[in-house]
C-alpha cells in the first residue's frame, strides 16, 4: 500500500514536469505552415441521423450539403474548397458533446455548424463556446437556448419558438367580437421547442380573452393520442393547438377525427410543414395552419437556386429544415467573406461573431439580424392548406402572402 | 362523466391489446422461468415486417401473418433450444435477462440499419373513423386490435386446455420434474412453448403496427409496462396476465383522461411495487411465482 | 509473486495517472475520463452483482438521481459542489436502502423486473416534475471550475473519476476480505441455506445494494458537474446500466479488476464503433451480439478465462458453499 502511495507521489511530480509539454491542440494552435497552399475549409457538424430526431436531422444535413455544393460551385470560401464532416449523435446529448469535442480538438475543423433540436443545441453550444468557436445553429429555437450566456451562438431562422405564432395571435385578436373564438385547447409534446410554440400562442390568446380549456403535455414516447383527444372533445374548444413534431401531429389529427372533435381552427407546429403530412393524415390536412419560417416561393435572394439544386441532388422538394441548414451556411459564408478568415483561432472566431451580431444578412428565409443573445429579430409566417395546397396566409398584405386565411375551417 | 366513460372504453380496448402482448411473456416465464426482455423487440420486428408488406405490395398488414407466425414460431424454438437452453441452470433467471437484452439490442440495431431511425406507420382507411355508442366514441382501429387480440387469446387458451401439447405444456409449467416423470419431453415442450410465445408476438406486432407509429427504439417503452402486467397477474399465469392487462389498461385509460400521461404510465409501476409488497406471487396467478 | 503483482499494480497506476499527459489531444482526455467513469460505476455495480449474484439493470437510476441531486443542490440552493456531491450521494444511498428493502424481498426474475421498473419510474418523476427539474428542457449545471478552460476541466475530472475508481476498488477489496463479504457470497451460493444458518441475508443484501448505489451516485454527481447539462431521458438510460453489467461480466464478476478490465475494453470500443459506424444503428447490434456472446460463452469473464486456471486463486476463492456458510455462521 505504502508502495502504491509512493508511486503515486512520484507520479504526480513527474506529471507536473510533463505539464511543460501540454496539449498543443488549443483550437487554432495548428497554424498553416507558411508557403503551403491552404487546404479545404473543413466544417464539423453533428446531427441526429438516427433516433428521435432523425427525420429533421436528415433535412438539415441536406440543406448543409446543398449549401456546400453551391459554395464550391462558386469557387469555395476565400478560394478554398468547403468540406463538411458529419457525425451522428443518435439524438443523444452525451454523443453531441462528444462529437463536437472530437471535431474541434481532434479533427481541428475550421468552423462548426449547429445540430438539430433545442435539446441537443445547448450541450453542443457549451462545447463550442468553451473552445471559442462560432456557433450558428439551424434548430435551437426554445427560449432557454438564449438564456445560457452564450456569446457566439446565433439562431439562423426568423424567430424563436415562442414568437412563431405571433401573426396568427394578432389576427385572431383583431377579429370582430362576434367571430372571435372563445375557447382554446392546447396539447404539447414535452419538448422545449414544441412547448415554446404552443405556449407562445397560448399566452397571447389568453391575453386577448380566449379562455384556455385544456392544457396538456404528453411525453415523447406517447403514441396513443385518443385519451388526449377525449379530453379535448369533452371541452368542445373553438381552437385546437398542437405543440408538435411530426408523428405526434399525425397521431393527434387522427385521434381528434376519431373522437369527432370539430374546432373552427386547428394549428400544429412542424408536422404540417413537412411534405409527408397530407398523405399521412389522409385528406384531413385541409385548413390546418402552422407557423413556417420559409416558403419555397418567397423569392428571397438565393431561394430559387436552393430549391432547384435541392431537387437535383435529392429528387424531392426542399422543406423548412433544409432551408434552415442552408441559411446557416449563408450567414457564415457572408461573415467569412467579410472578415476574410476561416481559421479556428480565437481572434478569427471572435471577429466572425462580432460581424454577425451587428450585420443584417440576406438569406433564403429573408433578411436576418440578431440581438445580443443571438436571438433572431424577425417573424414566422403562417401557412395553411387551402384546396390541398400549402399557401402563405399571414401576414396580411405582405409580399409572401399567397391566399387569405380560411376561418372557420371545414370539418375533417 | 362522459369523459370517464370514454376513458373506460378506451382503457378496455387498449387493455385487450395489452393482454395479447403480455401473453407471450407469461408463457416464457411459465415454461422456463425466464424473463424475455426481447419480447417487445420482436413485436416491433413483426410490426416492421407488416410495414414492408404494406408498402411494398400494398397488401393488408394482416396478410403477413401466414408468413410471420410460422417464422416467429421457428425463431422462438430456436432461441430457446440454441441460446437459452445452453445457459447454466444455477443463475438462469439473471443470465437469461442479459441474454435476451442482448437479443433486443441486436434487433433494434438491425431495424435501425435497415429501416432508418425515423417513425414509420401504416394508415388504413378505417384509421380515422369511430363507432359511437351512447356518446362514447370507439375508434375502429382499436376495436379491430381488441378483436384480433381476443381471437388470438381464445385460440391460445383452446390450445393450452384442449390439445395434448397444451396439457404437456401446462404440466411443464406447473411441475417440471413431475412432468418429466410421467414421460413428457419437457425440453422439447419448453422449446415449443417459446415458439408459441413468439408466435403471439407476430400477431401482436402486426396489430400494434396498425394503431401506432413506431421506430426501432419503441420497444423500450413496452418492456416496463408488459413486465408490470405479468408480475401483477402472477408470473407464469397466462390467464392472470390477461386479467391484469385489462385492469391496468382501464386504470391507465382513466388516469389518462383525468390526470396526465406521466401518472398513467406511473400507475403500472405503482401496481408492480404494490403487488411485490402485498402479494409477491401476483393477484390473479397461482403459487407458482412464489420464489421467483 | 507478490512483488511482481505489486509492481504491476504500481505500473498500472502510474500509467493511469499519466494518461492525460501522454495523449495528443483533449478529446482523448475526455474519452479517458468517460472510460474511468464507467470503470468506477462497473466496479461499484459489482459490489452487488459480484458478491451476491443479484443482477441489477437499474443502477442508472442511482446515477441519474446522483446527477440531478448534485445539479439541483448547486443550482437551486447554491450549495458549493464539494457539499452538494456528498450530500446528494448520501440521499441517494438512503433512497437505495428504502428501495432495497422492497427489492430484495424478491429474487431472480422479479428482482430484475424491479430494477428495470426503477429506471423507468425515476425517469418519469424527473421528467414530469418540471417545476423542480426543468423536465425535458434539462438542467444546466454551472462548471465548478470556471477559471479552467474546457480541456483543463477534462483533466481535473479525469483525476476525480480516477479517485472514485480507487475508492470503489478499495471498498470491493476490503469487503472481499470481511465477514460482510463472506455473508454476501453465502447468499450467492445458496440463499435459503444461508438464511437457515442464521445469516441476516436481508440486511446484508440491502447493505450491499446501498453501498453499490453510493458510488454510482457519486459518479452521477461528478458527471453532472463535469458535463454541465442533464437531460432526463439520457441520464436515466437503461443502456447505461446495461453497460455496467456488460463490463463487469466481460471482465469477470468475481475479480477485483474484472469490471475495470471490462470498462477498458467496452468504453473505447463503444466510442470507436460510434465514430466508425456512427451513420447507422449497427453499433447497437455490435453491443447486443457482444452481450449474447459473453453470456453464452464467457459468463465468468476474461480474467477467469486467462488467470483462473493458471495462477490459482481468484479474488473470490472457490470454496464450497458449506465451508463458506460455516465461516459466516460461526
Describe this entry's structure for a reader.
The complex is a heterotrimer of chains A (412), B (292) and C (330). Chain A is of the alpha/beta class. Chain A folds into two domains: 41-159 and 299-368, 3-Layer(aba) Sandwich (Rossmann fold), CATH 3.40.50.2300; 163-292 and 381-394, 3-Layer(aba) Sandwich (Rossmann fold), CATH 3.40.50. Chain A contains twelve helices and 14 strands. Chain A has a five-stranded parallel sheet with strand order 2-1-3-4-5, with helices on both faces. A four-stranded parallel sheet of chain A has the order 7-6-8-9, sandwiched between helices. In chain A, a hairpin with a 2-residue loop joins strand 13 and strand 14. In chain A, helix 2 packs across helix 11 (320-339) and helix 11 (320-339) crosses helix 12 (346-358). Chain A is globular and about 70 Å long. The N and C termini of chain A lie far apart (76 Å). The model of chain A is unreliable at 1-22 and 24-35 (pLDDT under 50). In chain B, a hairpin with a 2-residue loop joins strand 1 (130-133) and strand 2 (136-139). In chain B, strands 1-2 form a two-stranded antiparallel sheet. Chain B is mainly α and 292 residues long. The longest helix of chain B is centred in the first third of the chain and has 31 residues, at 2-32. Chain B is built from eleven helices and two strands, in the order H-H-H-H-E-E-H-H-H-H-H-H-H. Chain B has helices at residues 2-32, 39-57, 65-83, 92-115, 140-162, 164-174, 176-181, 186-211, 219-233, 238-258, 261-278, and strands spanning 130-133, 136-139. Chain B starts with a helix and ends in a 14-residue tail after the last helix. Chain C has 330 residues and is mostly helical. The mean pLDDT of chain C is 84. Chains in contact: A-B, A-C, B-C. Chains B and C meet through helix 4, helix 9 and helix 11 of B and helix 5, helix 11 and helix 13 of C.
Amino acid at each position: 500500500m505504502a508502495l502504491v502511495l509512493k508511486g503515486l507521489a512520484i507520479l504526480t511530480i513527474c506529471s507536473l514536469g510533463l505539464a511543460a509539454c501540454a496539449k498543443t491542440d488549443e483550437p487554432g494552435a495548428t497554424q498553416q505552415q507558411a508557403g503551403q497552399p491552404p487546404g479545404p475549409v473543413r466544417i464539423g457538424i453533428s446531427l441526429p441521423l438516427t433516433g428521435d430526431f432523425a427525420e429533421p436531422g436528415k433535412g438539415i444535413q441536406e440543406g448543409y450539403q446543398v449549401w456546400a455544393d453551391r459554395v464550391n460551385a462558386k469557387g469555395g470560401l476565400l478560394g478554398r474548397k468547403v468540406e463538411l464532416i458529419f457525425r451522428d449523435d443518435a439524438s443523444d446529448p452525451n454523443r453531441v458533446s462528444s462529437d463536437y469535442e472530437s471535431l474541434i480538438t481532434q479533427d481541428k475543423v475550421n468552423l462548426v455548424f449547429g445540430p438539430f433540436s433545442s435539446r441537443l443545441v445547448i450541450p453542443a453550444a457549451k462545447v463550442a463556446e468553451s473552445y471559442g468557436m462560432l456557433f450558428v445553429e439551424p434548430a435551437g429555437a426554445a427560449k432557454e437556448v438564449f438564456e445560457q450566456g452564450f456569446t457566439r451562438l446565433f439562431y439562423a431562422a426568423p424567430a424563436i419558438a415562442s414568437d412563431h405564432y405571433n401573426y396568427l395571435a394578432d389576427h385572431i385578436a383583431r377579429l370582430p367580437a362576434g367571430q372571435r373564438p372563445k375557447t382554446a385547447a392546447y396539447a404539447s409534446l414535452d419538448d422545449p421547442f414544441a412547448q415554446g410554440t404552443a405556449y407562445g400562442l397560448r399566452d397571447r390568446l389568453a391575453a386577448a380573452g380566449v379562455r384556455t380549456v385544456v392544457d396538456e403535455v404528453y411525453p415523447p414516447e406517447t403514441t396513443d393520442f385518443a385519451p388526449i383527444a377525449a379530453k379535448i372533445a369533452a371541452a368542445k374548444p373553438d381552437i385546437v393547438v398542437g405543440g408538435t413534431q411530426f408523428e405526434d401531429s399525425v397521431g393527434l389529427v387522427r385521434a381528434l377525427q376519431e373522437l369527432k372533435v370539430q374546432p373552427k381552427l386547428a394549428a400544429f407546429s412542424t408536422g404540417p410543414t413537412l411534405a409527408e403530412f397530407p398523405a399521412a393524415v389522409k385528406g384531413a390536412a385541409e385548413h390546418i395552419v402552422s407557423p413556417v419560417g420559409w416558403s419555397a416561393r418567397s423569392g428571397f435572394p438565393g431561394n430559387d437556386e436552393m430549391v432547384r439544386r435541392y431537387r437535383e441532388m435529392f429528387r424531392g422538394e426542399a422543406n423548412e429544415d433544409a432551408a434552415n441548414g442552408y441559411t446557416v451556411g449563408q450567414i457564415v459564408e457572408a461573415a467569412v467573406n467579410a472578415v476574410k478568415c476561416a481559421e479556428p483561432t480565437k481572434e478569427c472566431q471572435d471577429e466572425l461573431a462580432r460581424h454577425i451580431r451587428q450585420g443584417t444578412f440576406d438569406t433564403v428565409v429573408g433578411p436576418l439580424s440578431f440581438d445580443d443573445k443571438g436571438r433572431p429579430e424577425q417573424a414566422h409566417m403562417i401557412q395553411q392548406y387551402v384546396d390541398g395546397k400549402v399557401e402563405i396566409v399571414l401576414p396580411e398584405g405582405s409580399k409572401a402572402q399567397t391566399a387569405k386565411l380560411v376561418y372557420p375551417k371545414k370539418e375533417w | 362523466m362522459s369523459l370517464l366513460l370514454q376513458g373506460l372504453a378506451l382503457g378496455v380496448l387498449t387493455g385487450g391489446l395489452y393482454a395479447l402482448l403480455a401473453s407471450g411473456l407469461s408463457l416464457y416465464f411459465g415454461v422456463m422461468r425466464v424473463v424475455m426482455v426481447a419480447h417487445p423487440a420482436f413485436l416491433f420486428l413483426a410490426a416492421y415486417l407488416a410495414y414492408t408488406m404494406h408498402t411494398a405490395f400494398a397488401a393488408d398488414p394482416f396478410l403477413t401473418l401466414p408468413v410471420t407466425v410460422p417464422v416467429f414460431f421457428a425463431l422462438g424454438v430456436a432461441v430457446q433450444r440454441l441460446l437459452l437452453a445452453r445457459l447454466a441452470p444455477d443463475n438462469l433467471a439473471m443470465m437469461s435477462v442479459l441474454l435476451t437484452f442482448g437479443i433486443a439490442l441486436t434487433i433494434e440495431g438491425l431495424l435501425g440499419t435497415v429501416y432508418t431511425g425515423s417513425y414509420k406507420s401504416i394508415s388504413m382507411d378505417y384509421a380515422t373513423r369511430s363507432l359511437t355508442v351512447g356518446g362514447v366514441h370507439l375508434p375502429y382501429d382499436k376495436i379491430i386490435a381488441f378483436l384480433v387480440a381476443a381471437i388470438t387469446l381464445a385460440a391460445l387458451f383452446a390450445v393450452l386446455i384442449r390439445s395434448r401439447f397444451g396439457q404437456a405444456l401446462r404440466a411443464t409449467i406447473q411441475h417440471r420434474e413431475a412432468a418429466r416423470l410421467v414421460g413428457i419431453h419437457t425440453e422439447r415442450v419448453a422449446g415449443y412453448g417459446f415458439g408459441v410465445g413468439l408466435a403471439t408476438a407476430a400477431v401482436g406486432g402486426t396489430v400494434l403496427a396498425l394503431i401506432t407509429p413506431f421506430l426501432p427504439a419503441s420497444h423500450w417503452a413496452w418492456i416496463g409496462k408488459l413486465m408490470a402486467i405479468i408480475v401483477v397477474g402472477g408470473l407464469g399465469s397466462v390467464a392472470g396476465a390477461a386479467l391484469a392487462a385489462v385492469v391496468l389498461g382501464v386504470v391507465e385509460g382513466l388516469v389518462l383522461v383525468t390526470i396526465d400521461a406521466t401518472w398513467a404510465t406511473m400507475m403500472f409501476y405503482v401496481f408492480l411495487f404494490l403487488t411485490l409488497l402485498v402479494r409477491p406471487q401476483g393477484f390473479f396467478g397461482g403459487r407458482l411465482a412464489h420464489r421467483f | 509473486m507478490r512483488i511482481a503483482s505489486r509492481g504491476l499494480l504500481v505500473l498500472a497506476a502510474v500509467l493511469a495517472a499519466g494518461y492525460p499527459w501522454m495523449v495528443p489531444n483533449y478529446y482523448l482526455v475526455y474519452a479517458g475520463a468517460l472510460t474511468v467513469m464507467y470503470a468506477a460505476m462497473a466496479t461499484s455495480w459489482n459490489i452487488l452483482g459480484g458478491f451476491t449474484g443479484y443482477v441489477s439493470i437499474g443502477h442508472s437510476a442511482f446515477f441519474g438521481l446522483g446527477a440531478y441531486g448534485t445539479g439541483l443542490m448547486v443550482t437551486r440552493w447554491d450549495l458549493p459542489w464539494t457539499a452538494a456531491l456528498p450530500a446528494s450521494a448520501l440521499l441517494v444511498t438512503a433512497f437505495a436502502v428504502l428501495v432495497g428493502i422492497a427489492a430484495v424481498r424478491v429474487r431472480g426474475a422479479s428482482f430484475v423486473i424491479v430494477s428495470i421498473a426503477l429506471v423507468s419510474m425515476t425517469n418519469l418523476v424527473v421528467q414530469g416534475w418540471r417545476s423542480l427539474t426543468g423536465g425535458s428542457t434539462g438542467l444546466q449545471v454551472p462548471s465548478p471550475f470556471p477559471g479552467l478552460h474546457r480541456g483543463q476541466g477534462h483533466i481535473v475530472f479525469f483525476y476525480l473519476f480516477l479517485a472514485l475508481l480507487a475508492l470503489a476498488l478499495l471498498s470491493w477489496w476490503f469487503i472481499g476480505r470481511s465477514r460482510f463479504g463472506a455473508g454476501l457470497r453465502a447468499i450467492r451460493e445458496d440463499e435459503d441455506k444461508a438464511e437457515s444458518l442464521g445469516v441476516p441475508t436481508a440486511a446484508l443484501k440491502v447493505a450491499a445494494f446501498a453501498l453499490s448505489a453510493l458510488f454510482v451516485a457519486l459518479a452521477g454527481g461528478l458527471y453532472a458537474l463535469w458535463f454541465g447539462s442533464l437531460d432526463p431521458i439520457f441520464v436515466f438510460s437503461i443502456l447505461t446500466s446495461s453497460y455496467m453489467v456488460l463490463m463487469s461480466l466481460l471482465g469477470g464478476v468475481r475479480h477485483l479488476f474484472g469490471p475495470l478490465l471490462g470498462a477498458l475494453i467496452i468504453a473505447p470500443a463503444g466510442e470507436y464503433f460510434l465514430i466508425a459506424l456512427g451513420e447507422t444503428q449497427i453499433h447497437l447490434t455490435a453491443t447486443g451480439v457482444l452481450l449474447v456472446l459473453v453470456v453464452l460463452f464467457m459468463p465468468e469473464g476474461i480474467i477467469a478465462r486467462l488467470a483462473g486456471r493458471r495462477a490459482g486463486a481468484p479474488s473470490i476463492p472457490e470454496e464450497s458453499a458449506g465451508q463458506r456458510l460455516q465461516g459466516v455462521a460461526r
